[in-house]
Amino acid sequence: MSNAMNNTLSQTTSNSPASAVKPVQGLIRGVILALACWVLSTPLTTVTGSTAAAVGCLFACLWMDRQLRTSTLLQLRAPALLLILAVGLVLTSTLTTLLVQSAVLANLLGAIVLYQSGQSLFWFALAASVAIALRHTARRHSWGAIPELLFVASAFVITLAAHQRGMIDRPYFIGDFALIRGMDPTTILMGIGVAAVLALAVLLMMENQHRRLPYNASILAVLCFSLLFYVQFFGLPTPQLTNDLGLTGTEGSGSSANNDSPFRDGENNASDREAPVAIVLFRDDYEPASGAYYFRESAYSEFNGTLLWTAENPDLDQDLVDRFPSSPIDVSNEVPAQQLRRRVTTTIGLLAPHRSPFGLDAPVRFEPAPNPNSLRFRQTFTVESLVPEFEFPDLIGRKAGSSTWTLQQWAEYLEMPDDPRYGEFARQLTATLRPEFADDPYAKAMAIKAWLDENGIYSLKNEHAYAVDPAASFLFGDLTGYCVHFAYSATYLYRSLGIPARVGVGYSVPSANRAGGSALLIQAVNGHAWPEIYLEDLGWVIVDPAPRQTLVDMSVDPQDSLQQLLGDMLRDDAAFQAFLDDQAGASAINWALTLRLASALVFALLLLAYAIKMYRVSCIGWANEQALYRLAYRAALDILAAHGIVRRTGESREAFARRVAQGLPAFQTLSNAHLSAAPGYAFDPALVMAGGHKHAASTVPEFTRQQWQLQLADMREQLWTRQRWWQKMLAIVHPVPWLQSR
Amino acid sequence: MQVMEAQTVHSTDLDHAREVMSRLTQAVKAQVLGRDDVIELALIALMSDGHVLLEDFPGSGKTTLAKALGEAIVDDQPAHQKTTDASGALVPIVPFRRIQFTPDLLPSDVTGSAVFDASTNSFHFRHGPIFAHVVLADEINRTSPKVQAAMLEAMGEKQVTVDNQTYPLDPLFFVIATQNPLDLVGTYPLPTPQLDRFLFKLTMVHVERDAELEVLNTWQSRRDKQNTRIHVGRTEILQARHAIDAGVYISDAIKTALVDISRALRADERILQGNSTRSLVLILPALQVLAAMRGRSYVNADDLETLLPPVLTHRVELAPGSSDFVKILRDCMRGPMEILARSTLNPAP
Predict the structure, then answer these.
(1) What is the ipTM of this complex?
(2) Residue A86's domain spans which residues?
(3) What's the pLDDT score for residue A3?
């Protein structure tokens, strides 16, 4: 035991000179870790708490760097240190609890201050402990930097994960910043990703011990490649969001269909049915013939063995869009019968989170819209819809389904539970049709709808949710249920007659609610599911049963004033502009353009600078023989300046050459040659003009072009062996050494 | 072709001058140990026709230095070229004289005086100790201003006047004056205008430990070898002076820098009185000698940096409260030296 201890100690001691931390490095590392701490703690605590976490982490890092050799705490073995940290954390959290619960202090300081200080204390201690543990591990073990890297990486990954597919979640500011300006948040998120990679790279570069580099580089590679593979094979994961579709909420949230059935039992209550869910602004006037606006969000069309569920087959339901637009999205499937439809544009502001965007039947294009109030609207987008204006003659006499469908699609749209009762019952219901309509799909559908209207009983309380097939339990049982039961039953009945059908899910709002205005409030109570059939050359047609008998009062008071207020809020361009101005500092500058121009300018300047740098060094190859003494020396000065070696103000050239001469004798030679060849310094130019010789006693021979070049090459070589690698790198990238050479 | 030949001769002259200087240096260095910097400056003063004021402690080798310098010079001029006085008699010039200045010294003790010769029934001039190549004026601040004035006239004009009769001194007349920085009781400090006649004022410090040991180890051998010393002819030195004067180039840039530095010094508020124009005139030959010594045919910024402190230190009067002249000088030099350094990169005119 003591032997092992000694080993560790001696190893640490022997390592310490090599791993001496430079103050700047330590500071950079500390700042990166502190940022990670801040990002990780943001969703968990108050602003004060997360700030305290960042400060604590930075403090701990700097303290660790200072205390390297002196502190006995850092000489402890890792488990002992971890134990001490854990005990310290428990003590701190106890102290925090005491602090927050103390009535005396609360009366004295106020509850908020006390809570904030408690949070600060705890998060400070937590972040400091984590930082100490991380730094300690990093110092002790050759793999030690891996936890540090993982810590920083996780901070960025978590930040980004909350923003998948443009979702807004904590921290809000990233998404909000982009969305209120109508920008694509992807750019910002990618910027954060780049920052993450940079931060990790900086951590790696600061590694003094080179045998650790393989570990660190490989972990970074694993992180990057795992992300790549994940996206490649599994696609981007869908965020888990609560479903606020409302009372008759028909949408499950998970991927396992069997557990999440759209059928619910008596738990449904109507307490928050008036909750506003979304506000719709009509850009075109439109009054539906059916008396209700249908907003389709998704549809259940694929039979999964138990019931109909969201299609996983990409061939089905191509008219649905499953992600929010960050750039305009065109619905891939072309809507048929455009001459019988009208183009209606609406802007929708979501007040509750949704999984996918919805629009008036049938949406063809989604566009992101500027969010005038990100605290009020979760998401805003503009939808173009081709709303149906079918008359009865248009509907009658059509074939069911589409001739362009594949057999597979046909089969999917007709698949249903293996229950013969549906078919028998459907034929029984359609048997009474007049002969001219006996084979007409729409007539059959209407007959079934009429029967359900007549005999169904609307109720939120029911017992069907526990049956294997709740729809059958409803249809062949007490016929008491809510819209989902009606929709499923009707869909199964249609399918049993060979009419392709599906369950549409979304909102259905009575057109009277609009009350003549251009805003329409969607409330939780409007959540709805309905059956749709597909008619040749018309597309999906909603055939929605409306039971006459109802056991529950689903009517709500009209919310005209709220509807108007929200509509104005979404519509008010002036207020939106004022808000934008407020955010952008009341300037009308086009930031994106300015930024682009500025970066172009910087780029051009950089190019120019490098061109000048190249020219000044290489021009001795072709310059005038008479000017060589000057240009070659200037080139040497440029090279030295790039390496950070510059003559001081007032320092003579001779003194400068002497100062630099150590390890760089070629420069001394160059300098002497230059000075003794300088007219007006080493000889009288007038005398030379008159034909005299330059020097009374020539001590330094004049250089030829080749000699100048040779000396320069020598100097470069000597410089190259003298300088450290990072100095060489800096010298290569230095754009303006010619500003410093003199 | 003509030009080339002239140039060859020229170059040889300068090399010869350099050789003369190195021989002189050797001769002095053999006698004075651990004082290489002082020897170099003293030699520069000798070659550039200036004089040196040494400020040092007693027994620190001032006399040894002056004596070694004086005795290294031999009078090699033919008899018909020797200096004669007004009466046609030869002026007896000796290599080295030392004058100990005391408060009761009279000017005639320095210059010499007319003495009545009973046999010829006339006065004739007896030359004083000042008629020598190298004169060591020891403790020059201990004598009366009258004697100092006589001494300084000789230094400035290369002549002495006694009884309205002017006697020229040898062209190679070089004074090393000394004064003790301490022990100032009963002295007549030299006023600034008189100090201006000295090219350099050198403050010597004690020699280093090893050099001091060396002095002790070799004093006997040096004493015994006195007759086998290296000698330099007087004419050689004068020729060397001429060669350096003609062959070493001082650029306008250097002169500009000199003037600008002086002006900056005079304008500096830490300085009560700046240096004279004469100092700038005196420094030019010194710069040339230093450049030649360093094997160059032109004066460069290095020479300027080396010579400005010993030339200027005793010529300026500092304002009360400031003490470090070298620092002030460095501040004042920065601008002109920067211009000088940049001038070499300017395209040729």
Answers:
(1) 0.84
(2) 2-234
(3) 38
Task: Choose the weakest-confidence range: A311-315, A479-483, B8-12.
Answer: B8-12
Same domain, A301 and A185: no
| A267, pLDDT greater than 70 | no
Domain that holds residue B70: 2-241
Predicted local confidence at residue A206, as pLDDT: 67
* Helix-then-strand count for chain A, H and E: 26, 15
pLDDT reported for residue B228:
58
Residues 308-367 of A with CB under 8 A from B: none
Structure confidence at residue A186 as a pLDDT band (50, 70, 90): low
Of the candidates B284, B335, B340, B286, which has an alpha carbon nearest to the alpha carbon of residue A653? B340
Identify all chain B residues contacting A683, using CB atoms and an 8 Å cutoff: 249, 297-298
DSSP type of residue B214:
H
Judging contacts by C-beta atoms under 8 Å, the chain A residues touching residue B254 are 681
A contacts of B4 (beta carbons < 8 Å): 693
Q: Tell me: do B87 and B234 sit in the same domain.
A: yes
Q: Which residue has the higher pLDDT, A41 or A10?
A: A41
Q: State the best of B11, B15, B300, B337 to mutate against chain A, taking most chain A CBs within 10 Å.
A: B300
Judge whether residue B298 has pLDDT over 60: yes
Question: Could you tell me if residue B84 is inside a domain?
Answer: yes
Residue A605: predicted pLDDT: 92
Cβ under 8 Å to B: A residues 682-711: 682-685, 691-693, 695-699
The secondary element (H helix, E strand) that includes residue B266 is helix B252-267
Task: Give the pLDDT confidence of B75-87 residue by residue, as tens digits.
Answer: 777 666 666 655 5
CA dist., res. A522 & res. A358, Å (int): 12
Is the minimum CB–CB distance between B334 and chain A shorter than 8 Å?
yes
- Is the pLDDT confidence value at A19 over 50? no
CA dihedral B17, B22, B27, B28 (to 10 degrees): 100
Q: Which residues of B touch A647 (CB under 8 A)?
A: 341
CATH number of the domain bearing residue A528: 3.10.620.30
Among A234, A257, A289, where does a domain finish?
Answer: A234
Q: B112 with B201, same domain?
A: yes
pLDDT of B164 over the 90 cut: no
| This prediction's pTM | 0.50
A696/B297 touch (CB, cutoff 8 Å), yes or no: yes
CA distance B87 to chain A (A): 43
Answer left, alpha or beta for residue A232, where phi above 0 means left and psi between -120 and 50 means alpha.
alpha
For residue B44, is pLDDT > 70?
yes
Instruction: Go through chain A and tell me how many residues it has.
Output: 742
pLDDT at B41: 92
Burial B94-124 (b: 16+ CB within 10 A, else e): ebbbbbebeeebebbbbbbbeeeeeeeeeee
